[in-house]
Input
Amino acid sequence: MLNEASIAALDAQSGDVLALGNSVYQMVGRSPDSLRVVHPMRDGVISDFTVIHAMIAHYIKKICGNRLFKPSVMICMPASVTGLERSAILELAIAAGASRACLVDEPLAAALGAGMNIAYPGGQMIVDIGGGTTDVAVITMGTVTLSRSVKLAGNALNEGIQRYLRRERNVLIGDLTAEEIKRRVGCARLRSTELAISVRGQSYVSRLPVRLEVSSTESFLAMRERLGDMVESIVRVLEETPPEMAGDIFDQGIVLTGGSSLLRDFDAMLHERTRLRVRVAKDPIHCVALGLGILMEHQSILSDNNYYYRTDDDIGEYARNRNL
Output
């Protein structure tokens, strides 16, 4: 498994891609004026197609080397992505070096990676909380029957921490520091045992470097509003679920995947709001990738659930069929 950050370093003048992935991550907030660090995917949407093209081509070459034959590529996308975006991703994958590409709904891959039986004839709910989006889906017989994707996830929680410290403590912090606070002391409920972390930032008043201690209570207050919105999006999907499948979900519970599902007490917070059993997958960060691995090993699951590989010649027909 190749696990790389979706981030790139560009030449500030020419815009050429100089570096990609984890080697760029530590440059966030520290890059010189000659470099521009960009996130080509924000809130589950591609914001820079040129960089994404370079990224896909780079990783295909890194994984496959200089093979004579082009590889088949499978890509996950949120179930709520539009037909236009799906067609654009197919074109990007082919242009970047794939012989053919297949798009799979992300909740379905996450469910497979979490060990769920997607062929189960009843309703099952999965919630994938990533960096840009929270994807909520009800799955039955291998099909996503109901889904909602909201642009509230890990990045929004980081921004909440940054805003809180600027407003309440007059301190500016960067994205990496906010992520560290969330990971180390972040929580979805007030804790009886307080946690704290010492971090560095910049005074909003004097602009001088400062050190401050951030508590778990402060992190909760910073993220509370956004966490509430995330939970309400899950509740809305439950409200829209047909009664029979809602009864199945009552028996099966809710499965959480995605890195942000590891936030302390989020499962307990969701349980309090829904009164349903909630569990975090065994390896929530890698569930989607593991699910794709299962699909690659069992190609029949793709055809059984109407997922097909598309070649360059198929893309135009695919777009027309989706009324683009």
